[in-house]
Amino acid sequence: MIHPHTELKYISPEIGYGVIATRLIPKGTITWASDQLDQVFTPHEVAAMEDVYKDILYKYTYRDSKGNLILCWDHSRFVNHSFNSNCITTAYSLEVAVRDIQPGEELTDDYGYLNCLEPFACLPEPNTSRTHVMPDDLLHFYKDWDTKVLSAFLHFNKVPQPLAFLIEPQYRKKVHSVAAGFEQMDSILNCYFSEDAGKMLVKEGLLHSYSYA
Question: Which has the closest alpha carbon to 107: 84, 90, 127, 130?
């Protein structure tokens, strides 16, 4: 579910529609959280579909750490890409604002952490040398994203959290402990998927947590 202080709005012919903040969304706010209305499609289910349905899923879904395609039911599926996104996902099935999002500003994600199925070119942006989103971007940029998310969690308990009720039970205690500085934050790298991701990450020791120290 997307943050309630947002709306769907036409951005431009190149971009299409996007999600706009209708009020200030402070740094550290949950901007999106998975909920019971989101649809989950396994790779086997997708493989059995007609191409017309596959095309829709490939356009509007993200891929979780298990390889499932997740179709969000609300306008969160229209959140656009940016290499300098103001929202970043976490290992807890939710996203947080990594800086203040002003009224009228577009909410963005870096599609690099959404396990895209294949590379795709993006519109040019300042202050980055990246031009394409790649399926393995998480392996290369997770440290930068973790740093931003950890900084956002410092504000988590100081800002309104209208989506806090959607924190999944298995993550609720951990999220609040991380926000309070009592526990280490699980790396965004836990969101990564590939056919042999688990074996590779364990072997290379990349699945680890981050602390405030």
Answer: 84
pTM of the model: 0.91
Interval 50-105: pLDDT, tens: 999 999 999 999 999 999 999 999 999 999 999 999 999 999 999 999 999 999 99
Contact 70, 38 (CB under 8 A): yes
How far apart, in whole angstroms, are the C-alpha atoms of residue 185 and residue 91?
A: 9
Q: Is 130 exposed, middle or buried (0-12, 13-18, 19+ CB in 10 A)?
A: middle
| Phi and psi torsions of 204, nearest 5° | -90, 0
Query: pLDDT tens digits, residue range 22-37?
Result: 999 999 999 999 999 9
Longest Cα–Cα distance in the chain: 50
What are residue 21's DSSP bridge partners? 6
d(CA 145, CA 143) in angstroms, rounded, equals 5
